[in-house]
Design goal:
The chain is about 40% helix and about 30% strand. The protein is an alpha/beta fold. The chain folds into 2 domains: about 120 residues, no CATH class; about 90 residues, no CATH class. A hairpin with a 5-residue loop joins strand 1 and strand 2. Helix 5 runs antiparallel to helix 6, helix 6 runs antiparallel to helix 7 and helix 7 runs antiparallel to helix 8. The chain is globular, with a radius of gyration of 21 Å.
Amino acid sequence: MDEIKNFPTMIIPNGTDIGVNEQGQLSIRTPGNLVIQNSGVYSVIESGNGSVRIDPDVKVEAVSVQAADSCFVAGELTAWRVRARKITLEKGAQANIILQESEELELDRNARLVGNFSSEKELYLMLGRFSRQLRDLPQNLDRRDRETAQMQREAAPNLEKSADHPQTDSERLQQRDEVLSLVRVILERELGHPRQPDNDRNAVEKLLDLVRSGDLDALRDGYGYLMSQVEQRSEGMEKARKVLDRLFSSS
């Protein structure tokens, strides 16, 4: 009995929402402060009114980390987006943050931060400028580096062309491939959202199948209808619709 009493106690406050998506990623939304003491892969980590802290020696991978006040990292964090009033990396912390949305950023001199774009638009534009360099990355990277490089290549569309510089056939093919790659990345990320309604998910899955097929005629005929079936359309979905509109209006 004494041994049982020595076990740590877990308290789940009122208003906390805990779930698991189809990819097995855990989502935690809580109204107060949240301390992560277990390494893991998460879809969403959210503190509605307080702060999020990742303790030392804890490795966290998350699609989205949100905190009304601060996000403290003492261990390791890899995230697509971190949104907080203040982000603090403590001594020895490591963070790979693609999109960082904060008013303040505080780093210990022994901490390491990679990424740090302020918006998806900034990320797309930056990767677009260096798309040639991304394609020329060496092929002898390890598996994880190759996968990361592939994602970067796919998210680097060269969509802006001046009217004074007409595109060649090869440039048009390159633009088409980059648009389809970008749309595929967006749709795959949309399917990772844990709270997507079934009807929206079905439409996104059908649209993703069209994109993956490479059948431009079928995609041209079907994408508008499938987009209209997605009721809760995110910023990413709007981006996908616009680039497809631009692709097919110019072809």
